[in-house]
Write a structure and sequence with these properties.
This protein has 370 residues and is of the alpha+beta class. The chain has two domains: 46-198, Helix Hairpins (Orthogonal Bundle), CATH 1.10.287; 221-368, endopeptidase fold (from Nostoc punctiforme) (Alpha-Beta Complex). Helices cover 60% and strands 8% of the residues. Strands 1-6-2-3-4-5 form a six-stranded antiparallel sheet. Helix 2 (46-111) packs antiparallel against helix 4 (127-198) and helix 8 crosses helix 9. The termini are far apart.
């Protein structure tokens, strides 16, 4: 018969055990609560989102200008490569023609027997005829020597052209790699900005858009630009320029080309910003200024950091319509000054070409071209 043992009692049995379990659960819940609150990221305010989005757009514009520069260099390298390739093809054709001529001479010499001249003189029945032929042969020999020299020259030229084209092809591939890298950087920043904006509620998005519309001081220019309408404030007569804090009286373009550049820029109001675009249906910032001055007959380089050196530097107090105004320490944005402390520029994705005050971004310098 099996022995019966009394069950061993837990030291925390009964009421004490239940109390301990309750305290343990409470402690775990408290710990979880505090741990969760410690790791939860607070929801950013609309102002914080706007600051982050502005920074991402600025970084995207830096990458856009680098993309524009890499694209310009890639196009130059491609043009040089194609030019050398075409020249190599022409030289190769001339080389083949020279070789064919040399081959014909060699074949004729073979058919004539290539006898020693003294033997030919001994065997001939007409010495006068031989001497005449010998003179012709000597001339043919001179032509043959010239043909050999021509073949050598063309061969050396073809080899040099092929070596140069290989160098330009390597440069082209390097610039195309940089182009892809900067494109990825632009798209990454823009996607990050879109992701931040997508997290805003409808009310927060409305506040964000109101803040963006107010960047031009009144919201009128941006609003009209967004709908593609006419910007009446831009078309109005320019009043005194107060950009330097003083009243200098009416502002006029320094010359006809500057006035034409401003007129072209006005005609682009409302067109969308597209990074890397140079018109006519869309622009990025440097694409707009380049197109405006091209319409005035002046060729500007493609990027902001090269456009700033395309003319004579002017101070902020000397600004006149048509001047290029640059912003940020990295010279990553440019606008076209139109007087009255305002400019026309292509701001960023989602914001069309519009009139804006030059005070809305940190001033980095200005250049007068034309």
């Amino acid at each position: 018969m099996a022995a019966h043992r009394k069950p061993k009692q837990s030291p925390l049995g009964g009421q004490a055990g239940r109390t301990a379990a309750t305290l343990a659960l409470a402690s775990a819940a408290t710990a979880t609560l505090f741990e969760g609150s410690g790791h939860a990221e607070p929801r950013p305010t609309t102002a914080q989102v706007k600051a982050k989005v502005d920074r991402l757009y600025e970084e995207a514009e830096v990458a856009t200008e680098r993309y524009n520069g890499a694209k310009e260099k890639a196009e130059e390298a491609r043009a040089a490569f194609e030019r050398l390739r075409d020249e190599a093809a022409r030289r190769t054709q001339r080389l083949n023609t020279a070789r064919d001529g040399l081959g014909a001479m060699a074949a004729a010499q073979y058919r004539s027997g290539g006898l020693d001249p003294a033997v030919q003189l001994a065997l001939t029945s007409n010495p006068d005829q031989y001497l005449e032929r010998a003179e012709l042969a000597e001339r043919a020999g001179d032509r043959q020597a010239a043909a050999v020299s021509a073949v050598r020259r063309e061969l050396a030229a073809v080899r040099q052209l092929r070596a140069e084209s290989t160098g330009h092809l390597d440069a082209l591939r390097e610039h195309e790699t940089e182009l892809r890298r900067q494109k990825a950087a632009v798209l990454g920043r823009l996607q990050a900005a879109r992701t931040l904006l997508a997290r805003l509620t409808a009310e927060e998005r409305a506040r964000y858009e109101a803040a963006e519309a107010g960047r031009d001081g009144s919201g009128t220019s941006a609003g009209n630009g967004g709908t593609g309408g006419t910007d009446t404030s831009a078309a109005a007569p320019v009043r005194a320029d107060r950009s330097s804090g003083g009243d200098r009286g009416p502002v006029t373009a320094p010359n006809g080309r500057a006035a034409e550049a401003v007129s072209f820029a006005r005609a682009q109001l409302g067109k969308p910003y597209v990074w890397g675009a140079t018109g006519p249906s869309a622009y990025d910032c440097s694409g707009l200024t380049q197109a405006a001055w091209r319409a005035a007959g002046v060729s500007l380089p493609r990027t902001t950091y090269t456009q700033i050196n395309a003319g004579r530097r002017v101070s902020r107090s000397q600004l006149a319509p048509g001047d290029l105004i640059f912003f940020y320490s990295g010279i990553s944005h440019v606008g076209l000054y139109i007087g009255g402390g305002q400019m026309i520029h292509a701001p960023r994705p989602g914001a069309p070409v519009r009139v804006a005050p030059i005070d809305e971004m940190p001033f980095a310098g200005a250049t007068r071209v034309g």
